Amino acid sequence: MILIFQNISHFNNTLMSTIDLRKNGQLEDQLKHKFQEVLGDCVSPFHEYIEKVSEGVSGDIDWWVSTPVSRDTIYSNLFHNFTILFFVNRLLKEDVPFESIIVDDFYLKEIMSEFFHLKNKDIKVHLDDEGKYQRSFFRNFYEIIRFHFIFFIKLFFCKFLLRSKVNIPPINGELVLIDTFFLDLFRSKERYYDGLLENLSSQEKRHIFFVPSVLDEKITTLYNSIKFLRSYPEKYLLKEDFIKFRDLFFTFGYFFRKNKIKFNQIDVLGCSFHKLVKAELLYLNRFLMSIEGLLSYRFVKNLRQKKIKVRTSVNWFENQPMDKGWNLGFNSFYKESINLGYRGLVPANYFLSQKYITDFEFNNSVTPKKLFTVGDNEGLEASRFTKRTALQAGPAFRFRYLWSDLPKTNEQKDIIFVALPITLQQSTGIMEGVNSINDELKGRKAHFLIKLHPTMDKSLLLNNLSFTFPENMAFTSDEASSILVKSALIISGMSSICLEACAVGVPLIVYNSQNLIPFNSLPNNISKKIWKNVSNKKELTREVKNFLNMKKSEKEIVSLYSETVKKDNFKPVNNSTVKELLKL
C-alpha cells in the first residue's frame, strides 16, 4: 500500500511514510501544491540543463531527433524527474519527515538513492515495477523492426504498387512546400489547414504542394491513404517519392548510433542526473517521430540534389523530433529559401517542447526563422526563451468556424461536452472523474457527449475504464463546433479545444487528476470567470454545479468575454492572412 502525506501543514515530528512521486502519483493537496511550486521554478533551470548537456553534440542530427533534447513532457519523464530531485531537496531543507519515496523509473531510483546517500539520509527508494527496464529492452528490439517495416511498406507502395511520376509544374523556384499529416480517417476533412486553398486564386494554388507524413500503421489503411493522395498529384508531394531505400538503412542505424551519442555529462545537485539522459536515449519513446525526423531531413537533402527550387517551406510546428529534421534540412540545404513555421494549436502550459522555442535551437538551425502562431503569444509566454525567433499571429485554420454564423440552437442546459485529449492516461482520468459525479447530477438529467481525440482507439479507452457506460453517456463523432454551441459546459484536459470553448462562450473545466504535472492549454491571461481547474471529484462536482446553475447575467458576462478571447487569440482566415503566411 502506498501512503500519502496527511496534515502536511503541521510538519510535526510524526514520521510520515511513503511519498508517491510516480508520473501519475497521488499527493495530498498541500503537498501537491508545494510540488507544483517547484515545478514552475524548474522550467528555466531545466532549459539551461538541456542546453549545457547539448553543447558537445549540437551539430549531430541524431541528437536533435532524440527524446532528451526534445523537452517533450508527455512522452519523456526527464523534466518530471528533474523536478522530483529539486522537490525532494526542498522537503529535506524544510525538515519534512518521511521514510521512503516511490518512483516509476529504474534509473531515477538509482539517482535518488545516490542523492539520499549524499545527504546522509536513511530514506528508501521503491520502484513500482522492477522489471521495467528488462521488458523495455525486448520491446525496443521489436519496435525498431515494426517501425521500419511500416516505412518499408510505405516506400514499396509508393515506388511499385502505387507508383506515379512526380509532375512539378513549370514554376520551379516559386514552390511553396507545406508540412502536414495524413491519416485515412482524415480524408473527408482538412484537419490542419482548413480554408488555406479556398482563399487563394487558381494561379496561386499552382505554387502550393502539401507534403504529408502518412501516419497510418495498418497496411490496408496505409494503402488507402497513399492511393487517395495519389489521386491529387496537383496538391500533394509525397516524401516517399524522394526518399530512397538506403535512407531507411540510415534510420535503422539510428537505433545503434543514439546509444553512442557523447553528450556532456553534467550532474544535478551533486547527483549523476546524466544517467537519466542516457536512459532516455535507450528507451524508444517517440521513436516513430525520430525516424520521421531523420527521413524528413533526408527528403530535403534529396530534394536539393534533384535541383528542385523552393521559395517557401512551412513546417507544421510542434517542436517535435520530426519538426527538427524538417527545419534542419531546409535551413541547411535551402538557406536561400524562406523557411517558416506554423503552430496551429494552443500549447499546454507544461508541454515545454510545444510551448517554448529556444535561442539555442534557433542557433542550431532546428527551428524555423519565423513562427506564425495561434493563441496570444504574450499570454503563452512564447518569447520566454527566444529573442531571435520572429513570432507573429497567423490565420487560425483549425478554428476558422469562429468567424462563421454559428448555428443557433435552443439552449441545452444539461448537455455536458467531454472532449478527451490525446493521451490515454488523461482521457481515462477524465472519464473516471465524470462517472464519479454522475449520480449527483441525475436529478438534472445531465447528458454527457464524449468526443475522442481522432487518434484515440475507442476500444482501448473502454478497456481501461473501471465502469460501463450508463445511459446518459454517449460517444459522438460530430464536429466540435456543432457540439459546443449546444452545450452548457465542457470538461477537457490538455487540448486546444479549451481555448476554443472560451472563444465560443462555453464554460470550461480543465480536469487534472492523474498527473503531478497539471496540463492545461490556456494562456495565463484567460479570466477564471469562464473556466476552472480541478483535480479531484469534490472540486469537479462543485464547479460543474456552479456552471450549470449560472444566472442569466453571469452567462451574458461569459458571452461578452468570449468575444475578447476570440479577438486576442484567433486571427481570421482570409486571402490577406493566408498570403502573408505563405509569402505569396
Describe this structure in words.
The chain has 584 residues and is α/β, with parallel strands linked by helices. Among the domains are: 1-162 and 239-298, no CATH class; 404-569, Rossmann fold (3-Layer(aba) Sandwich). It contains 20 helices and 15 strands. A six-stranded parallel sheet has the order 5-4-6-7-8-9. Strands 12-11-10-13-14-15 form a six-stranded parallel sheet, with helices on both faces. Strands 1-2-3 form a three-stranded parallel sheet, with helices on one face. Mean pLDDT is 90; it is low at 1-14.
Topology, element by element:
Blueprint: E1 16-20, H1 29-54, H2 61-64, H3 78-93, E2 98-103, H4 106-118, E3 124-127, H5 132-161, E4 175-182, H6 202-205, E5 208-214, H7 219-230, H8 245-257, H9 274-282, H10 287-305, E6 310-316, H11 321-333, E7 338-343, H12 352-355, H13 359-363, E8 370-373, E9 390-393, E10 415-419, H14 424-436, E11 447-451, H15 458-463, E12 473-475, H16 480-484, E13 489-492, H17 497-504, E14 508-511, E15 531-534, H18 537-548, H19 552-569, H20 575-582
Parallel strand pairs: 1-2, 2-3, 4-5, 4-6, 6-7, 7-8, 8-9, 10-11, 10-13, 11-12, 13-14, 14-15
Helix pairs in contact: 1-3, 5-7, 5-8, 8-10, 10-11, 17-19
